[in-house]
Design goal:
single chain, about 725 residues, alpha+beta, six-stranded mixed beta sheet, globular
Length: about 725
Amino acid sequence: MPTPESPDTLTRTERREFLSLCRGLEAKMASVMDQGEIDRVRSQCLRAMDSGTPAHDAHGLPKSVMSLRTAHLFADSIDRDRNIVIAILLYPLLEDEITDISTLRHEWGEDIASLLVGLSAVEKFSSNNTAIHSDNFRGLLLSLADDIRVIIMMIVRNLTVMRAINLHPDTQWVRDVAFEANFLYAQLAHRLGLYKLKSELEDLSLKYSNREIYTQIAHKLNETKRSREAYIKAFIDPVRKKLEEAGLKFDIKGRTKSISSIWGKMRKQKVDVSGIYDLFAIRVIIDTPPEKEKSDCWMAYSILTDMYTPNPARMRDWISIPKSNGYESLHATVMGPQSKWVEVQFRTRRMDLVAEKGLAAHWRYKGVKSDSTDQWMNNIRDILESADAGPMEMMKNLKMDDYEKEVYVFTPKGDLFKLPAGATVLDFAFRIHTNVGAHCTGAVVNGQHRKITYKLANGDTVEILTSTTQTPKIDWLNIVASPKARNKIKQALNEEAQKRADLGKELLERRAKNRKIDIDDAVMMRIIKKAGYKFVNEFYSDMALEKLDVQKVLQQYVEEANPESVGERVSAEEFELRPEEDGKTPGKDVLVIGGKSINGLSYSFAKCCTPIYGDKVFGFISSEGVVKIHRDDCPNARNIRSRYPYRVVDVEWSGKTGDTLMATLRVVGNDDLGILANITSIISKEMGVNLRNVSIDSHDGMFQGVLTVGVTDLQQLTMLIKKIRTVKGVKDVARL
């Protein structure tokens, strides 16, 4: 690695790889790019490499080399698409600000520019590899879902990184990348039908997160490789003979399942490698015209099941009804020689191309989309737009198997719809249209009347019944199983609540106008909080429902904010400080107004900003005649100074340290075992600091805590914040 004084450039080995990758990619893309374009791309790549910007990213990976590796992988595994490959190669120039998007749009066209914009948007969320652990997760996925090509590019890019980080010294970063690869990109690859990429992502993720298990399975497979190959040959030879006798033209090959798949079966079945009964998978790829695809696959299936005993529970028919991602295949599991279960997959050459390269095999990214592609994108958006779903819930939805966890139902006209397993009549209604779902009262299922809670079964014929008086209810959220229906119900409920809140606010403003009262939002917010409401809309909604008395609320407002309640207005200069007689005033001489001590006089510290010794402060003469001490950066400071400048007085600390005062801190971090104990331990060890209150909220592996501490001055609080930030797992500490 370069020293801090030397420029960050590619090593000699990396430069040789860069040139080799350039030559190889030029050869691959020669069929879709002319020599002029190839020369321009090569020039841009060299420009990025020799621009003087750092050649390696924050984790030491060579940026230009990684882009070329990604382009190679995309061309080999997906498609030799001109625009996507060029966008992958040009991205380092945009990332390092060597050029801008306007220039690239002018030089390469709108489509390549849009791909670069998409990559930039995704990078904004995922550059720190913390997307899975934060609220950025949803933003990342929504950015991905904006253009399916960006999804594919990011899958390939992630696999390129995964291949490059074996034995990387930053083990925590490697684990984060592996986690994201397994729970996000592998599942997106599965949804797109990119099974080869999906398997490699899962295998590498297992390798980096549990190297011991990965190595154990790999060694076991290696030890038994010769016997497995012999078994596969013994199984295939008689099958090949029978298929040839039937006049079929085909290829047949055997393989061992992926390491991650084997590990999943080991955990599920609670056995070691030798106990997995379907380690083998045989694939029969038939050459046949489109009109004979189904019949030839079923013929081959029939021949196999005549030779070996099938397991009916393991039969999968994705030829009659393909998966949502376009996958078509006929799977059978049979009892082979030595009483071992073997999975056999039958598919045509076209089907195999789709299985290997997913939707990219029959959709050229731009132009007419296939129905399955549109449906896939709609399903993804339905999942992502569930606003209240956290990262883990979204990942669970992404991971759902397309066949085993879907139910197929028909309309009376014979149209076929796919829904998640457990879907109800209400799910189906929202699947047809949002308005149909919102007004659904039940359905006629197979000729019988059913309630909205009725769970649908494969093959049901469903006719939805509606009523104009029906509206979504909160308990509908417990009825539906699909993310789309849940999201639409929430939207409808939120819209209804907003309407009620608008009515309540309008009612308050109308009554206030009658009494000639001007409503100030800041004062109203204080009243709402004092009433115990977390959300403003809930307050106004209750007012519309007459759970709150409008006249009483207005009276509270007058008492809280109406200057007339103070009596005659006086300026801050004319205001006379009065000694406090009830003994509530702090006893130390720590504040000065206009050079005069206010020790023993009527003042208090504002609860909205909790000032402590050392803060920049000002005084506000309240309606009770008490000087309220606020921080200069108090959330209410601007409103106070603009509306009541005649009641603001200059206040300074006298130079003497005061009593212990309360300060509130917000702490955000990973929800790790013992992290709260570490934070409280630091506070308890600080001389003169007292922990008065702790409030913790944990969600999806992250926690947010609000701590109230007693400190004597700002310097002590600043030092405490610095020490809390050193606790492992703490992401941010801020004073409220």
